[in-house]
Write a structure and sequence with these properties.
15% strand, binds manganese (II) ion, binds phosphoenolpyruvate, 3-stranded antiparallel sheet, single chain, 15 strands
């Protein structure tokens, strides 16, 4: 009997490996290629984290979102890190996503497709290859931090040197994270009857009070349906799909398997991968590799994207024009979204290209505060979302979802919100290693506002 998931056959491998002849940006310079080869050989034998059938199910959900029959909520850390892969933080993050989903479903009567930036978001593209700091009065330059999958954040030569053993560590920690995600989402914690429990300990502000109101209404509806004898098994579980930026191609290639059902190759490091703004070159290695796997693929589109670019990306990544296969993640910035996005959306629509449009209102809105923090204004985040809705309304297309950087903790990394975080407040609890994330309360606030936008759509 053929194994359900195999190493790719020679001809499939040939297609998968074509990327090696192309330019791959943002790859680490590994100092020891033998060590890399040994790690890759072990990852090629490793147990998959996700299965092709799950990725196909996600593709169907994303297709529904492209038709306006569901709304995508993709969220999590900018960069996960090994030290924070404990159950409590993971639970807090899941809780945030579940609460946001409840708010959206309740407020806008729409099913929510939940996707975490989780269990693999360990590699980061950087604008510079190295970083210079003043250490003990001297300028020191070291390789930039590229995520825990590549090197350490600590600013020492040892830590900043890329180490391929980190790829294997990332795989193992992702497996443990995926396991606890599945336990939380299928083991009772995500049961909709827990809708009040998720809010416990958070009650003293208007956002949480508003959430409590939603929870009371949901509770009442569940009791009513219970009394009517409805079958509620479906409320016990949620599907939280796993995604990350598919950046380090040696890692993604090593975890690619061939599905015995269909003969197609799938990344098994996550259900969905996305291509970042810095690696979406049409003739580049990332686009080529992703074209050869069958998972749902996201592509970040920044303000320099032309309608021709978008059409060409779709032709390359989704030649069969399969709904749900391709998600465009627009990250234009609040100041640009209303100028740049209309022509893209219009052209994709006119050409009959199947794509799910979601908004990333984070990455076009990054600023540096006067006191030196990399931050974002909550008002800009909301304004970009609003602009995204306006554009789709004007063109007559579907705003399919949100892509957010968020955490379940009470960090102070984004300015504003009902918690009124100001510049001085950023210092209170600024924990991110890369980009600033919405905290728990700002995430719920976003969900309430987006639910209103969806209602009015
Ligand atoms: C990210 O999602 O963390 C990221 C780096 O985004 P982008 O590729 O859009 O800049
Ligand atoms: Mn980021």
């Amino acid at each position: 009997m053929p194994a359900a998931l195999d190493m790719p056959s020679a001809d499939v491998a040939q297609g998968l490996d074509h990327f090696r002849t192309l330019t791959a940006l943002q790859q680490p310079t590994w100092p020891d290629s033998d060590a890399l080869a040994a790690v890759v050989a072990r990852l090629e034998q490793a147990t998959p984290l996700t299965l092709p059938a799950e990725s196909d199910a996600l593709r169907d959900r994303l297709a529904a979102a492209s038709r306006g029959e569901a709304f995508v909520l993709q969220g999590g850390d900018c960069a996960e890190n090994f030290a924070e892969a404990g159950a409590t933080r993971i639970r807090n993050k899941i809780r945030t996503i579940l609460q946001m989903a409840v708010i959206l479903t309740h407020g806008a009567s729409t099913p929510v497709v939940k996707i975490g930036r989780i269990a693999g978001q360990y590699a980061k593209p950087r604008s510079s290859n190295d970083e210079t700091r003043v250490v003990a009065g001297r300028q020191v330059t070291l390789p930039a931090y590229r995520g825990d999958m590549v090197n350490g954040f600590e600013f020492t030569p040892e830590s900043r040197t890329p180490d391929p053993r980190r790829l294997e560590q990332a795989y193992r920690i992702s497996a443990a994270t995926a396991n606890v995600v599945r336990a939380f989402t299928h083991g009772g914690y995500a049961d909709l009857r827990q809708v009040h429990q998720w809010n416990r300990g958070f009650m003293r502000n208007p956002t949480y009070a508003r959430y409590e109101g939603t929870a009371i209404e949901i509770d009442r509806a569940i009791r009513f349906m219970d009394a009517c004898g409805a079958d509620f098994d479906a409320l016990r579980f949620v599907d939280l799909y796993l995604s990350h930026e598919g950046l380090i191609l040696d890692y993604e290639r090593a975890l690619t398997r061939q599905d015995a059902r269909t003969g197609k190759a799938y990344a098994t490091s996550a259900h969905m991968l996305w291509i970042g703004e810095r690696t979406r070159q049409l003739d580049g290695a990332h686009v080529d590799f992703m074209a050869h796997i069958a998972n749902p693929i996201g592509v970040k589109l920044g303000p320099t994207t032309t309608p021709d670019n978008a059409v060409a990306l779709a032709a390359k990544l989704n030649p069969d024009n399969l709904p749900g296969r391709l998600t465009f993640v627009a990250r234009m910035g609040a100041g640009r979204v209303r100028d740049v996005l209309p022509a893209l959306v219009q052209r994709i629509h006119d050409e009959g290209v199947a794509a799910t449009w979601i908004t990333d209102p984070m990455h076009g809105n990054t600023i540096t505060s006067d006191n030196g923090y990399k931050t974002r204004r909550f008002a800009d985040v909301l304004d970009e979302i609003q602009g995204f809705f306006e554009v789709h309304r004007a063109v007559g297309t579907v705003p399919g979802g949100l892509h957010m950087e968020l955490t379940g903790d009470d960090v102070t990394e984004v300015l504003g919100g009902t918690g009124s975080i100001d510049e001085a407040g950023l210092a209170r609890r600024y924990e991110t290693l890369v980009d600033p994330r919405l905290n728990h309360q700002q995430s719920l606030e976003t969900a309430f506002l987006v639910a209103e936008m969806l209602q009015g759509f």
